Amino acid sequence: MEIGNLLIARNDRLGDWVLTFPLLEEIREAWPGVRLAAMAPAAVAPLLERRPEVERVLLSPGRSWRGFRRAVREVRAGGFEAAVVVHPDLVDTLVVWAAGVRLRVGNGYRAYSVFYDRRVMVHRSPSDRHEIEYNLEYLAGLGLAVPDTPREPRVEVTPAERAQAAEILAAHGLSEAEYVVVHPGSGGSSLNWSPARYRILAAELTKATGYAVVVTGSAAETELASAVAGEGRGRANVAGETDLGALVGLLAGARLFVSGNTGPMHLAAAVGTPTVSLFAPLRSGSPGRWGPRGKAAAVITPSGYECEKCPGPRCAHYNCMEAISVEEVLTEVRRLLATKGD
């Protein structure tokens, strides 16, 4: 049965949605005429508005009664034949149920799975597959085949986005410079390297490669980015200066991207930029599940550690990420820069 009007709901972050793009592409390929809409948080909406598969973006309800009622009205008005709740979420589930969506697809391992018509038995907690593969399992709930080999997320870059990035670089005196992007923040989503290590790396990157270093981050991470960029020549702090389009343009123009396990890492990989990523030794956040996709990707984890959860400062080895040396990161940077385009 082909569905003509479908809603995909996911109430989480930028990187999670980037890893959901292969699911959107598979649906569009199977049903070329489907009217595909996405329900996502406001921070992620611009990412989805630029997707060719998505005709309309609705905002997630959040955790307020007003947001819930607004989302129910919009979903009901959308006339959706089916909805897929990709990331298990009670509120999103209740929205599509209360809106009267006829076919509701979601995770079968939740207490609220009774609100779904088709339950997909996806157990993410073992983290034994990549998030892309977990997402693609929801194709089965729509009666579609799950591919044996998942495609990689891809984000196309527009001339306007490249122009935005060029303006920002020019404002920092880097209009003609080749550059590496360093993104030291994680939004609290993962254990990360210290600002001091990122600062040393930024200085050493310029010496080792001759490239400028552009430090990115959200407006809330401006102080962090400033500490990492420092005052040296060829280093620029652009945290808080980039909307999504400008960030895409900056990432696409970079020779390399260095970060922890964070959403912009997936965005960088999706625009084809080589990535060096620092991962904590946690099962739930393992590179096997959350690593960047693509041939030009290096992942570094602190050796000798493997944890279920991070107890934070109570751990005798906190912060184990400091066991990753600057030289380890520089080694991977040199390797990827030497092999780019191979």
Structure described in brief:
By secondary structure, the chain is an alpha/beta fold. Helix content is 37%, strand content 15%. It has 14 helices and twelve strands.
* Count of structural domains: 2
Q: Calculate the terminal CA-CA distance, rounded to whole Å.
A: 43 Å
Helix-strand pattern, N to C? EHHEHEHEHEEHHHEHEHEHEHEHEH
Structural class: alpha/beta
Poorly predicted residue ranges? none
On the 0 to 100 scale, the average pLDDT is 94
The strand count comes to 12
SS element count, helices: 14
The whole-angstrom Rg is: 21 Å
Q: How helix-rich are the residues, as a percent range?
A: 25-40%
User: CATH class of the largest domain, anyone?
Assistant: Alpha Beta
Q: Provide the β-strand percentage band.
A: 15-25%
Structural write-up:
The chain has 342 residues and is an alpha/beta fold. The chain has two domains: 5-141, Rossmann fold; 159-339, Rossmann fold. It is built from 14 helices and twelve strands. It has helices spanning 14-18, 21-30, 45-49, 65-78, 90-98, 131-136, 138-141, 159-171, 195-209, 222-229, 244-253, 263-270, 287-290, 326-339, and strands at 5-9, 35-40, 56-59, 82-85, 103-107, 118-120, 179-183, 212-215, 235-237, 256-260, 275-278, 297-300. The strands form two sheets. Strands 3-2-1-4-5-6 form a six-stranded parallel sheet. Strands 9-8-7-10-11-12 form a six-stranded parallel sheet, with helices on both faces. Helix 4 packs across helix 5, helix 8 crosses helix 11 (244-253) and helix 9 (195-209) crosses helix 14 (326-339). The longest helix is centred in the middle third of the chain and has 15 residues, at 195-209. It is globular. The model has no long low-confidence stretch (mean pLDDT 94).
